[in-house]
What we know:
By secondary structure, the chain is an alpha/beta fold. It contains 13 helices and 12 strands. Strands 4, 5, 6, 7, 8, 11 and 12 form a 7-stranded mixed beta sheet that branches. The protein has a 3-stranded antiparallel beta sheet with strand order 1-2-3. The protein has a two-stranded parallel ribbon with strand order 9-10.
Amino acid sequence: xxxxxxxxxxxxxxxxxxxxxxxxxxxxxxxxxxxxxxxxxxxxxxxxxxxxxxxxxxxxxxxxxxxxxxxxxxxxxxxxxxxxxxxxxxxxxxxxxxxxxxxxxxxxxxxxxxxxxxxxxxxxxxxxxxxxxxxxxxxxxxxxxxxxxxxxxxxxxxxxxxxxxxxxxxxxxxxxxxxxxxxxxxxxxxxxxxxxxxxxxxxxxxxxxxxxxxxxxxxxxxxxxxxxxxxxxxxxxxxxxxxxxxxxxxxxxxxxxxxxxxxxxxxxxxxxxxxxxxxxxxxxxxxxxxxxxxxxxxxxxxxxxxxxxxxxxxxxxxxxxxxxxxxxxxxxxxxxxxxxxxxxxxxxxxxxxxxxxxxxxxx
Length: 363
């Protein structure tokens, strides 16, 4: 039976962070959210959302309402991949990255959620997955916390049962300070904890090689986004020059943008962001990556991404920062560094209704 889309609604929220992230290059006092509701003729409502981090809220909302909503109204929500392709084809002139793909992603998440709710099944089950606990690393040892603050945050994660953490380098630190911070983090945590290091595109290729070689001895799980996301040659050169695995992908859009990584196989773990492809494209990225022998460690949004991790053959880590726990009626928090996919239909995450009343987005 078809699920005809009858309405699409957007909401803009700005919810204060409980613990604002000290990223060192972005000021984020609030969680700015674009929430999309897709309603079908049967009354089923699926939700998707974006947290774009660096603005564009009203631009994204306009893209949904002006460009995409007319394409989706009247379609069968069960044909999610076909709807993605329809939106993709119709927005060719406006671009294959950025605003249009992010807007498409919010709708794609909402459509998949509606499909799951209509069938009364969680997405991991629809996709043939499992609901066993999955490993999560504690992220958010932000560079803005400083040397001591990063270590203290990491130790709190370890105390909560996490076996892996992610710290940051570059932007606020000299190379010598970065090396000392990594060295001291390893000394503080011991040999049994995985340490990931995030550069947030803060180095040149030459810097990444020079610093990377000096932090190789600290047995890091990966070095993340050492250079700008579209510098594929740079990624490959760094991967050839250092021992630590080089990873990235959070700022790349759709499987088309990942083709150099599929071809080279030099970036062993890919980290696509669900805002830059939705469920449909991230599952496609995972398929291409699997054929290339690569694994997936999605960027942020573990509450949504856990369904994909539970249903692909090449999973790696989920990333948890605790940013969104306060938003949900029923948060899905890690326990001893593990997250279990929910049994609730769809993606299973419902926003607390009072957020829409109490925290409207204001320009």
